[in-house]
């Protein structure tokens, strides 16, 4: 059946009808008064979502572009930075930092395990000369389904006193509590195709007063990603360059939806979907990549049975049910599949995906579970919620 594709990946995520209809409207001039009104509302609601009074700037870029902007605007060539790496995206930020001539000290952990917060403490406490200029890390490591302990690492950064903390919150902002002002986070980047529930194309960067002080002396090259002009333009409810106007229509709609649902309810829904997914996979006797105490609320990474290639599970689920699951990346390709439960995803969606996975496993010859065991485990979690 055509037009029944169901996205159960960590991005792009499903888009609600309100946002789709908003995007279908005729564009308007991005220098018009009507657009400025939308920009003002969007900016106010972004601050609500980010739990901050800091600037939250909107770029026409992916989450990678937002994160790169968040790094290059506040650092200088030769600066020493600590970069946490326990997955695809942690590796990416180390690569970006090296590309701009930064001195990168990588704190790594095996894919599927959280970053060791004590290693950050040790490095920061040993830096008596205060040479570390920033700590860069991914909060929700989408490639593995691990949630790193941002709160603890940030506490060590604050004790250091000089370093900025720069956070890839691309799949955690809007899915788990990140009180930016309460924690004093300096730079937080995210992307529209995740918990914001709209298509790819917009990146968001929250910037603290401390980071803006560092901006004054930063010497890294930038033009389109120079956040100074974005800040000046945002103060006038406009943008420095031509934005994707219709994505702003969609963002206006979804931010209204999120406010109506409420922050606590949004976080509770994502947590419930995570528990359902993990319980169901355990019911199917499938091991999970991320430990229970460090699990992302955006995606659940699952190891298939030894005799089954993860890509075959994805293929059957896609061909037979038109449900898209995510695969493993780099050395995990074929070794895991990932169930996205981020953004516009409901209990019904996750139950449907679990049923499809059960069928696929049976078709691929896996008999290591009682039929219906995944659904039974999932419904028990629902009943307790």
Automatic annotation (TrEMBL):
UniProt-listed InterPro entries: Aminotrans_V_dom (IPR000192), Aminotrans_V_PyrdxlP_BS (IPR020578), PyrdxlP-dep_Trfase (IPR015424), PyrdxlP-dep_Trfase_major (IPR015421), PyrdxlP-dep_Trfase_small (IPR015422), SP_NH2Trfase/AEP_transaminase (IPR024169)
Annotated positions binding substrate: 338
Keyword terms of this UniProt record: Aminotransferase, Oxidoreductase, Pyridoxal phosphate, Transferase
Cofactor(s) named in the record: pyridoxal 5'-phosphate
GO terms, molecular function: alanine-glyoxylate transaminase activity; L-serine-pyruvate transaminase activity; oxidoreductase activity
EC annotation from Swiss-Prot or TrEMBL: 1.12.-.-
GO annotation terms (biological process): glycine biosynthetic process, by transamination of glyoxylate
Top-level taxon of origin: Bacteria
Family listed: Belongs to the class-V pyridoxal-phosphate-dependent aminotransferase family.
Descriptive protein name: Soluble hydrogenase 42 kDa subunit
Organism: Lyngbya aestuarii BL J
